[in-house]
Each structure stands twice: as structure tokens, then as C-alpha cells.
Write a structure and sequence with these properties.
Layout (H helix, E strand, L loop, with lengths): L25 H10 L4 H14 L3 H13 L2 H4 L11 H20 L4 H12 L20 H6 L1 H6 L2 H4 L6 H22 L10
Helix pairs in contact: 2-5, 2-10, 3-5
Amino acid sequence: MATQQKTIDIAGYDFGRTATRSPMTEEDLDHLLQTVMFTDDDRAALRTAGDVLEDQTDRVLDVWYGFVADHPHLIAYFSTPGGEPIQRYLDRVRPRFAQWILDTCRRPFDRAWLDYQEEIALRHTVDKKNVTDDVDASTPIPLRYLVAFIYPITATMRDFLAAKGHSLEQVEKMQQAWFKAVTLQAALWSRPYARENHA
């Protein structure tokens, strides 16, 4: 069984140390978990997925970064207002994105995790976009892309989950658990975008 992922030295990665606190309660989180039909079996499948993906994160990110680079409307959010991609920004985000994959699989969905989802959400909005990496990229990222990105981040994961010889049934369980976890996080990331009385 994989051990809990410890905090490591990644620029801008401050899981467990961020001052941001989500206004969502543990009860709110439990209701969302029920809504995406997340179970103990899904938690076990995610732990397995973490072991499967641990040495594949660079290849996963090659696919995701390639997808973004192929779509000007997406790469624009990593580019200057004049449309020039900011390589330093892309390079700094990448290890945090890799860590996010492992955190999704291995972190308990507790208060520290919930607070960090709020921090991630804010980094996509006008409140904190560009601040962590001190860049001048287009801002903010519209909520519609956070929601739409659920599909490519889920659909492209199956081949990586199948790469270690697990049965089709095991791969499907990992895939469904990943899908639920990504949907859950996108729902949490939507909170700062919503009007307060609809959050």
C-alpha cells in the first residue's frame, strides 16, 4: 500500500500551509461526496491509481500540456496579453500539476484538503491568478473551462491506468474513481465563481 504523500519542495505548493480556508464545511463536503457517489471502494481504487501513476506523471502531463498547446483559447491563459506563451509559467505549474495527480489519489478528503481546493480555485480567478508565479498572463480562467476540462483529464487517463497490467475491471474501477474525484474538485473549484447565495 502506498504511504501518505509527504509535502515536498515544489514552488508554489503549500498544501497544509496555506492561510486560505474554505467556507465549505465537512458536512458540505460529505454531501458532495454522496452526490458524486464516492465510496470506500473508490478510495481504495484511487490509492491503487496513485501507485500506478506515480512514475507516469510526466507522460500524463505531456498529453495534457499538448492538448492545451493545441488549442489557442486554452494556451492563452498561460500567455501574455499579447499572446506569447510564458514558458516560465508553464514550467512552474507543471510540478504542481504532477503533485495534484498524486494528491487526488492519496490525500484524505479532510479539512486540509478542502482548504487547498479553495486555494487552487482562487488561483484560477481574478483574486489570485498569476500571483503565485508572479507572471502577467491572461486572467482569469473562465469557470466553463474548469468544468469542460473534466472530460479530457478523465478520458486521457485510462491508458495510463491500464499500463501496469491490471485487469479491465480494476482499470474501470480506477477510472471511475478518478472521474468522481475530478468532478468533486471541479465542483469545489466553482465556489469562488458562484454568487454567494448560490455557492
